Amino acid sequence: MNKNSTPVIRFAVFEDAEAIAINHIRSWQEMYKEFIPESILQNLSVQERTQQWQDLIKQGVKILVLEIDHKMVGFASICEFRDLKPDVLKGEISAIYLHPDYWRQGLGTQLCTIALSELSKLGFKSVYLWVLSDNSQARRFYESLGFVVTDYTRIEEFYEGGALLEEILYKKTLE
Question: Sorted alphabetically, which InterPro entries does this protein's record hold (predicted)?
Answer without folding.
Answer: Acyl_CoA_acyltransferase, GNAT_dom
